[in-house]
Amino acid sequence: MLSATAIVLIVILALLLSWLFYLRRRPQGATSVMAKARKYHKWLMGIIGIQFLIWSISGAYMVLVDIDFIHGDHLAKPADAKLNMADVQVDITHILAHYPKAENITLSLLGSLPVWRLQLDGEKLMVDATNGAAMPPLSESQAIRLAKDLYSGSSQVVSSQLLIDHAPPELSPRHLPVWRIEFAGMVSPTLYITQQHGELVTRRHDFWRVFDLMWKLHIMDYDDGADIDNWLLRILAIVGVLAALSGLILTILRFAQPTSSKGGAHEAG
Amino acid sequence: MKLVKQLHKWVSLLVGLQFMLWLISGVYFNFMDHHKAAGSTYLADASEPATFTALAPLPFMQGVEEVRLVQLLDKPYYLLVKQRPLYAYWLGQYELVDALTGKPSQIDSAMAEQLARASYTGPGLLFEVTLQQPPIADLPKERNAVWRVAFDDDIQTAVYVRQQSGEIAGHVDTHRRWRDVFFTLHFMDYASEGSFNNVQIMIMAVLSLWLAVTGIIWIIALVKDGQYRPALSQTQHGLQLLNVQGVPAGCLNLDGNASLYDGLAKAGQLLPSSCGGGGTCGLCKVQSPDAPAFTSADAEVLSEQELAQGWRLACQHQVKDFSGVSLPAQCQKVERHELQLTSARFVTGNIKELTFRTLAGMPLAYQAGAYMRFDIPAGHQPSVLPEPVGQSVEDNSKPFERRACQRNYSLAVPEGERELVFNIRLHCAPSQHLPPGMGSNYLCHLQPGDTVTAFGPFSEFKMIEGSQKPVVLLGAGSGMAPLRAILLALLQQQDAQRAVHFFYGARCEDDLLYYEEMMRLSALHSRLSYYPVLSQPSGQWTGATGYVQDTLMLNQELLGELTELEYYLCGPVEMMQQTIAMLKAAGVADEAIRFDSFGQFPSSGTDKHEVKR
């Protein structure tokens, strides 16, 4: 499919070049086309040029800063601790017997404690796998301790907050309720840990927050950053194509100018 | 500012195409159907989370980070996660255990096919099942081995099932492949890394940032220079054209709000420009006695002296800022006009008078004696036959091929007339095997209403500026045209008492071009003396006979001191050669003799090609 597109692009380029070749034979034709292109470019860019600047700045930020860094993968230590089956005293049969309606059942670690995590009627529940007791939601101190364990940096916690009903734009509301633990640092590193399951659901730092802003600017969504098909963007993108195309024609003509094309000299006195 | 413009131009060369690709792919993302583009056309809804009873106990296991109870094809499995990836498409390590039997299980091709079918709602039949290792063309981000289950539906859906876990890695169909093509273009991800952090896009992004920043700076400079004045309405503005000497040479009625460059271009006066009005090439400069304040673009390409002399870039100012402009001499050569024939008649047996007007409807600026260059297109036409005066001749000659060329013809009227008159001497085929004159046959074949393209006028043969000396015009045949223009121009100068002597040679009475007009003019203007000279007169002819140049020498006493006159010659080469030799022998200075040649001077014999007339 890429090769088909490449062929189409080559054909378009060939058409453009042959048109150019045709214009070269009529130098005045080239000049008047160029004058038109110049005018369109000037006016269209005069109107929407600022959006091109915004596209360029936001685009440059997004491509220059590594996306894995943006995603804050480095903010948390890799969670690769293994389960010790000797600690798991409560088998799945016990869980199923006690919670027959349980869904999405997993066995994993909370810190070093093996736990069963499950969903019951849409509610999250965690069961201690060493004794089968249902665990209460994370307290603030538990959440902070867990966050410190997960955090790869060494800075102090500057704030902790339990988000119950309202999620900030950087957190999906489906994870609520969530502990928001922010650490000290230039980029305000923040970990989000679910209250019921003690799971790290997302992390943020200012580079990601800037990325989110850049993304919104790039797709001209000044609302929530979810639509990339808003009409403002559609109109701007189409006008932008015309504005840039006139510029491209201008560039091609400017660089492919016949060396000299000024009238002919009269051959007789 | 000049650097900014240069940067903008060069950077645009480097990123221009990618810029277009970004925009076009951006427009595509805007208008695509997101559901389809995600490959979800034939994606089944996720099955309801299942609940289970009576499962086998967990097996003994080591090195496991997490155990998930999952459901594959309505059967429970333990998914042992030995290495949990940050994102599902990153490389993970999993094992499956049948949760009913407690026995290890594997996703084989049959199971992959069933899993794929369960997530597929399309009409396609199974086409093939293959195991693929990353990199996978359809899934550039995927780092796990996957089963590719292809269906033969209308959009070539392929369902990818992760080999270790049995998870559906995705549906990929034509819609999604197109989206991915545009993603590849938008992200310049030509190495299919599934990422936009590649070196090539970083370079392009930095360059486009330059393009945008320089563009914005340019816009700001344009705003400052008042270049963003919208021309919402048209206002007519009379613009006086001045010739190189600053003498008024016609008036144009232009839209006052247009740029001077555009206005002149619209009027057919295309100034040279290699930047198309960007104010960077400096070629469209014009001089004006009342030039407006210069802009930053003017100051960049014009010298201080030029600015002080009233030179400005036509593209940087509006028409209404000027009352008169003087165009550079060389650009008067590139003027192009569409001329429409209004009348045509044979004025002698083989000279046809063609009268044109410009389609643009405005008089042209030139000096008497000027010529225009006609575009003769390639074509196919019968020869035009000369017309003995008073009787028409049936055109029965063989058609001939005409190749494209250009031919020069002098204007037979001075500046200021609405009508442009030319005398075209018809060149007949010298023999049956040779074609006739291309230009003259084409032009003489035109019918009133036909249009032709002409360039000019080119004022090369013209009167000596500022002179009041008596004038001798000497010519023969269609050499009449520029001399007649000069003659009429001289006679238009009402107050001048300048004597004009016109010697005109022809073969016989019928070949005397504009005879009646000349007789009438000489009767009207005592300062005009007209000397028709015939080389082969009829018996009734009482005027001068022989060669025209000889008649000039014979009438020296009527002219006065030869060295006190100025001479304008146009006609056959031999005639002019001999005249020039005679005048020089009489002590006339070179500067006092001007001639318009239509052969290659001083070679003898008329050229087979008609260079002029």
TrEMBL record, chain A:
This is PepSY-associated TM region. The lineage of its organism: Bacteria, Pseudomonadati, Pseudomonadota, Gammaproteobacteria, Alteromonadales. It comes from Bowmanella pacifica. It comes from the Bacteria. The chain crosses the membrane at residues 6-23, 43-64, 231-253. The keyword Membrane applies. The keyword Transmembrane applies. Keywords: Membrane, Transmembrane, Transmembrane helix.
UniProtKB/TrEMBL annotation, chain B:
InterPro entries: 2Fe-2S_ferredoxin-like_sf, 2Fe-2S_ferredoxin-type, Beta-grasp_dom_sf, FAD-bd_FR_type, Flavoprot_Pyr_Nucl_cyt_Rdtase, FNR_nucleotide-bd, OxRdtase_FAD/NAD-bd, Riboflavin_synthase-like_b-brl. SUPFAM superfamilies: 2Fe-2S ferredoxin-like, Ferredoxin reductase-like, C-terminal NADP-linked domain, Riboflavin synthase domain-like. Keywords: FAD, Flavoprotein, Membrane, Transmembrane, Transmembrane helix, Ubiquinone. GO terms for molecular function: iron-sulfur cluster binding; oxidoreductase activity. It comes from the Bacteria. Pfam families: Fer2, NAD_binding_1. Residues 334-464 form the FAD-binding FR-type domain. Gene3D superfamilies: 3.10.20.30, Nucleotide-binding domain of ferredoxin-NADP reductase (FNR) module, Translation factors. The chain crosses the membrane at residues 12-31, 201-223. This is FAD-binding FR-type domain-containing protein.
